[in-house]
Amino acid sequence: MKISVWRITGLAFLGLTALGLQAGCRAQKGPDEELARRIQNVENALVEFNPGAPPADPASQKAWSIQERMAALMIPGVSIAAIDGSKIDWAKSYGIVKAESPAPVKTDSLFEAASTTKFIVAAIALRFVEEGRLDLDTDVNSYLKSWQVPENEFTKDEKVTLRLLLTHQSGFPMTNMNYDDSDGTPTIVQVLKGELPAQNKPAVPEFVPGSKWQYSNVGYVAVQLLLEDVASQPLAQIAREVVFEPLGMTSSTFVYPLSKDLQAKEAIPHDAEGKAGEPAMHPTALAQGGLMTTPSDLARFTIELMQAYQGRSAKILSQEMAKQMFQPAVAMDPQILGPGLSDGLGVFIRGSGPGFAFLHPGDNYPGSSCWLVGVPDTGQGAVIMTNGAKGNLLAMEIMAALAKEYGWPEG
Prior knowledge:
It contains twelve helices and twelve strands. It is an alpha+beta fold. The protein has a domain of 232 residues: 3-Layer(aba) Sandwich (Beta-lactamase), CATH 3.40.710.10. It has an eight-stranded antiparallel beta sheet, sandwiched between helices. Strand 11 and strand 12 form a beta hairpin. It is globular, with a radius of gyration of 20 Å.
């Protein structure tokens, strides 16, 4: 049986009954009847995703509304931006920013992008490559000033390069970015060294660079320091100048805690029981998951990268570099994200040839999620962000409904 990422059976990823659900408004007043019908079709066509369960006959599965699935999964808030024809077709929000609060999620509410942040950071790194400031295949120690990748038995013949960092083949460990705030704020160098108050594993190769794939958050922290050392600027400023300002992403920032004017717009994370928790954003290590943004802003980024691939824009990357970014570099274990997926330069790739898609999920403790999908050849895609620990399940259900309604290619 053919399995598609867009179908509920396609991924191996992993009560609030009165959520005060309120929809955000579209930029233009009064969507036309066809658009209203499409939105309604998506909102009421969710099919429950049961990880590990055998595929069921779609015709026999009950369709649920977004509100019903939010209640079942204990997710207080969701925000969606749907892309069609290389533009934002609609953006809509549901629920509340914090449990037991009346404040509704709006389309300009800020969510944690979590690991989807890596896609933005990868695009910035490739921009530096285009400008001749970095090379994809040169030992990163040639550029790093504040810290160096430690040499060991695994790096005798193969060195850590930007290409290997972006594709999770550097040899760096899998590790969460914990720290002890009672001991102060860890510097980015302390994070990379794994020194207190940082409590993560150090960025030391555990196997020969390039010999296998291993997802690494700390690898992207190394990319952050690489960019900052080369540019002599903090990542927040680099991202603002290279990505946010050129694309009009006015609700995106790497600065956290948020400024006072943005704090009222923050969607607070919630655990699997729907209880609000304290955001666990790292104060200095940002590239692995520190972006705060909205689905509409991430949709603008998605559209720009699709247009770059099509040769219709070059605000961030040229067509040649966008094609390199979306070229499968290493095949993924089907148990991780499902069959038919590869890792490109900082983003996952589904399929090949016409109809291929790029995508990046994100999931932050204690309960925030983000899903970004783009199909360059058709100009279609979506960004779905939630403030609940089970948000990835809901995002996949919404994506399946969007794919069906908009006729996304199966690849």
